[in-house]
Amino acid sequence: MAYQLDRPDKNQGLVVVLRRQNSPFESARFPLQSLNTAANYTVTNLDTGKVIQETGRGLMEKGLPIEFASRPGSALLVYRMNQ
Length: 83
Hints:
This protein is mainly beta. Helices cover 7% and strands 51% of the residues.
């Protein structure tokens, strides 16, 4: 389960992802909404420190990839449009 908190006024947002105790899924892709398809974004996982670069189109069409090692689990990710 995931939800997105978008701040269009700041060209950034937060994604919260939760893995439930009985979830059989170790990874998933979550399509984001309302991004600039022509822009590049930096996504930082606040739990692991992992940083990825992706286009707005990629984040909206392919989705944001998430992997969990444990269950239950959670992840907080911040995305920012590159200037």
